[in-house]
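call fold(seq) -> tokens
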Amino acid sequence: MIFRKKRYIRIEPKEKVEIKKDLWFKCEKCGKLLYKKKWEENLKICLYCDNYGRMTAYERINLLADTGSFKELWADMTSGDPLNFTGVKPYKGKLKEEMQKTGLKEAIITGECKIGAVSSIIAVIDANFIMGSMGSVVGEKFTRASEYALEKKYPFICVSGGGGGARMYEGVISLMQMAKTSAVVGKIKKAGLLYISVLTDPTMGGIAASFAFLGDIIIAEPGALIGFAGPRVIEQTIRQKLPHGFQRTEFLFEHGMIDIISRRAELKENISKILHILYT
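ret:
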């Protein structure tokens, strides 16, 4: 008996179906795929589970500032390398890489604008640049913006969104920015000017331990992670399970740490109302 060897013919499709990643976004919370354009039109909020995505600094400014009113200040300021940091990744190389990836020169954007027709000074921390960690330039630009607000007698609005703490590449120079920024906020309060602090996901580390929690009015977006050390670090340190929702906006609001929880679409309107009450 003779057996013939079976031959299998592999059929290749003429065109491979490719999913273009640039067109889709996967929600970190529910895992659903979202058409990126629709997600961005919805202010980077998931259409299925209402999870808030992170916005860039310029997206924040476009959301809050009146159209065409924003004028950036100290745009060309960049970090040096005071410690000549040459660890696993040299600091100079890290900065160059972050600039190329984000299109930013640092983790903070500062400028003058109008919010609801009220002249204001604004500073925005961008978590996309080295996790929004606070280095010498972040502290310096925040301080200059605060002093400019003092000079102009304008309200000062800061949107925090950094989870990287103090920037280790700059050592104690980074740590001293906590005291520096806190001191200039004290000057604003002494002068009787308004300082509004907006907390977004994440607001952690040195930023949370300094200027982020010093606002006359503290506003936070729903569900944002806000605190000093992260929940996993705390649990490992104290060897206890933390309460549900610990370090989230709603938990902090219930315990008196936050004044207003504002949905993203209503943020400009809420800030405008406050400015109009105090400045018009």
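Residues 18-51 form one domain.
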